[in-house]
Structure formats: C-alpha cells, structure tokens
Amino acid sequence: MDDRTIIVTGGARGMGAATARLLASEGGTVIVGDVLPEETRALTDEIKQAGGRAIAASLDVTSEADWDRVTALATELGGADALVNNAGVSQRVGILATERSTWDQVLAINLTGCMLGIRSVGPGMCERGRGSIVNISSIAGLVAYSSAAYSASKWGVRGLTKVAALELGPSGVRTNSVHPGIIETPMIEDVNATVRASFAATVPSKRTGRADEVAATVAFLCSDASSYVNGAEIAVDGGFSAGGAFQGVINEVSRRSAKPDM
Ligand code: NAD
C-alpha cells in the first residue's frame, strides 16, 4: 500500500475501522469517511500515533456534495488508488412489515451510496488507468436473509459490482465484492448470544468471523496481488454460503468413508 491513497467509507468502526488500520499499517494513506465524527477522529488519531497516515473526513455516502468533497481531497493527494465502499446499515424487518421509509433508507445507504462513490471516484481512476474498488456486500447478497431491504440492497451491490467491472475494467479499474458472514462488530451487538451461537453452529467453520479477517481480504483486493481479479465475489463466511443444506449428508458420507485407522 506504499504511496497509495485509499478511501474507506463507514470507516469509523467495525470492519471499516479494521480495514483502515490494516491498510495504514501497510503504508497506505487512508481517508476514513463516516457520519460519526468523534469515532472517525479517534481512529485516525490512533492510526497516526501508530506511525500511519490517515485523514478523517465527514462523509454521508448518500450525499453527492460529500462525495465531491472527499474525492477532491483524494485528488489533492494524487488521486484515490482504491475505494472501499463499506458503509452500511441493517434493519432486520420482514418484507410484509417493511415501512417505505426503512426500505428507502437502507437502499440509499447500502446501494445508492456505493453507486455514488463509484461515480465520484471512478473517473479519476479511469483517467490514471488504475484503481481498485471493493464493495462490501454480505452473505445476504448471496442467499435470502431475514431482512428484505438489507438483502435486496446487498444483492444490488453484487450486481452493481459486475456492471462496474465491465464498464471500468477496460480502463484498468477493477471492481469486486466481498460477502462477509456474521462478523463480530457493533452492527450485530443487538443480536442476542443465542442467535449468534445458533448461526455459528450452522457455519462449517463453527464460529462467527472477526473484522480483521474481512479486512485482510479487502486489503488483498486493494493491492496489486489481486491484479487479475475483477468482477469477482469473495465470501468471507467460514463456508456458510458453500451449501449448508448438504452439511448433514456430507458429514455422514465422510463418516462412513473414513478408514478405521484414520
Ligand atoms: P458497523 O455498524 O460496525 O459499521 C458501519 C459503519 O458505517 C459505521 O461506522 C457507521 O457510522 C457507518 N455509516 C452508516 N451510515 C453511513 C452513511 N450514510 N455514510 C457513511 N457512513 C455510514 O457495521 P459493520 O459490521 O462493520 O459493517 C460494515 C459493512 O459490512 C456494512 O456494509 C455491512 O452491511 C456489512 N456486513 C456486515 C456483517 C456483520 O455481520 N457485521 C455481515 C455482512 C456484511
């Protein structure tokens, strides 16, 4: 990440903060954009104290004016080399109980926010002929999930990613989506321990994930190590989306075919 400028949205806490810390520790200059000014400042201070480079930016991803300002800030630094569209909100409401206002808010932040980011930062990347855009979707963008607006927004992010990969790819800009499983961050603090434990039991890896495990995948996608990865969707979910319905059958076949001395 040496000499790279990276914008991380929703970077004040959770996975965004883990990503900002990792990218800064790898030598990048990280613009941390969020709607939580105190938490954003605290994180950038922490990164700077550790010897890294980070800039706090007030960014509501639904605001085109905010995107103009943050993109201009990146341009002053030579232009954004990577954009991590990580900001998101989750409202766990079934489709029949979903208020129009909830639907609009979740879609605006989770999906429209990604589009506005790509539309604002993408042109500079295309002009320079290089760049990496990482959109944080979810397993809720791969399978059905218990929140209509959230799942729809995350499937939308997956589709948007493919379009961007085709549209910006010829200009040297790669766009990929990351699909975290249940990751221990402030977003799921209100999910009770029993539900978390029952989820963990259905995951082949038998546990929930950590923010730094997602950050490592995001850093890979931001870096040149993934130079031929474009339009991909990478699940960081302990195997959850691999087809859990077959887990019992697979366990049984594996048990029967195991040699006694193994
Ligand atoms: P989090 O709630 O800890 O962090 C989300 C961040 O986004 C916060 O700092 C928040 O202030 C910021 N944000 C919210 N609205 C914003 C806006 N309008 N503009 C800018 N910033 C805004 O959540 P997290 O778990 O770290 O989630 C990060 C991303 O990962 C989200 O897109 C989320 O949907 C996705 N995700 C989370 C999980 C999980 O289990 N935690 C699983 C799959 C996907």
What key phrases describe this protein's structure?
262 residues, alpha/beta, 7-stranded parallel β-sheet, 8 helices, binds nicotinamide-adenine-dinucleotide
Helices and strands in order, then pairings?
Blueprint (H helix, E strand, L loop, with lengths): L4 E5 L4 H12 L3 E6 L2 H13 L3 E6 L5 H13 L5 E4 L14 H29 L2 E6 L11 H21 L4 E8 L12 H10 L8 H12 L10 E4 L10 H11 L5
Parallel strand pairs: 1-2, 1-4, 2-3, 4-5, 5-6, 6-7
The site of nicotinamide-adenine-dinucleotide (NAD) has 29 residues, from helix 1.
Q: Brief overview, please?
A:
By secondary structure, this protein is of the alpha/beta class. Helices cover 46% and strands 15% of the residues.
Description:
- The protein is of the alpha/beta class.
- Helices cover about 45% and strands about 15% of the residues.
- A 7-stranded parallel sheet has the order 3-2-1-4-5-6-7, sandwiched between helices.
- Helix 1 crosses helix 7, helix 3 packs parallel to helix 4 (about 100-130) and helix 4 (about 100-130) runs parallel beside helix 5.
- The chain is globular.
- The termini are far apart.
- Nicotinamide-adenine-dinucleotide (NAD) binds near residues 13, 61, 62, 89 and 188.
Kindly report the average pLDDT value. Answer: 95
Extract low-pLDDT stretches.
none
The gyration radius over C-alpha positions equals: 19 Å
Q: Give the H and E element order.
A: EHEHEHEHEHEHHEH
Number of helices: 8
Helix fraction by DSSP (H/I, runs of at least 4): 40-55%
* Number of E-type strands: 7
| Broad shape | globular
Biggest β-sheet strands, sense, barrel: 7 strands, parallel
Bound ligands, each once: nicotinamide-adenine-dinucleotide
Strand order in the sheet with the most strands: 3-2-1-4-5-6-7
Structural class designation: alpha/beta
Question: Strand share of the residues?
Answer: 5-15%
